């Protein structure tokens, strides 16, 4: 797909996310963080191409700042195409394929 698309990234607003399930609206019905990160995509993506997201620190900060959050809890990031975007980009994770698995790098400074 070569069309431009505007996406938003949210985190699930939960201190420990429930596993994904194969039920209707399983992702869309999850509570989203107030914070979000815009992800405008104006260039084509190649097949199996690694793409870096914008900085998602504010999303993660909102989750880990919850009073009931415990370190090491599961946190999901959720991508939405804007309502006026007909086109989208497929973002997938491959849990069983090391060469294309997703990774999250967190740098913490005091």
Shape: globular
By DSSP, the count of extended strands is 3
Overall pLDDT, averaged? 78
From the alpha carbons, calculate the radius of gyration and give it in angstroms. Answer: 15 Å
Structure annotation, total helices: 1
Largest sheet: 3 strands, antiparallel
Q: Overview of this structure, please?
A:
- There is one protein chain.
- The protein is globular and about 45 Å long.
- It has one helix at 57-64; strands spanning 5-11, 37-41, 77-81.
- It has 110 residues and is mainly β.
- A three-stranded antiparallel sheet has the order 2-1-3.
- The longest helix has 8 residues, at 57-64.
Keywords:
mainly beta; 110 residues; 1 helix; single chain
Summarize the structure.
With 110 residues, this protein is mainly beta.
List the helices and strands and how they pair.
Layout: E1 5-11, E2 37-41, H1 57-64, E3 77-81
Antiparallel strand pairs: 1-2, 1-3
């Amino acid at each position: 797909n070569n069309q431009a698309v505007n996406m938003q990234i949210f985190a699930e607003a939960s201190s420990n996310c429930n596993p994904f399930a194969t039920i209707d609206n399983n992702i869309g019905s999850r509570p989203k963080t107030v914070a979000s990160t815009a992800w405008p995509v104006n260039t084509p993506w190649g097949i199996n191409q690694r793409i870096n997201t914008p900085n998602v620190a504010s999303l993660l900060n909102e989750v880990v700042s919850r009073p009931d959050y415990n370190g090491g809890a599961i946190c999901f990031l959720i991508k939405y195409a804007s309502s006026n975007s007909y086109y989208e980009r497929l973002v997938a994770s491959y849990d069983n394929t090391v060469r294309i698995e997703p990774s999250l790098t967190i740098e913490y400074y005091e």
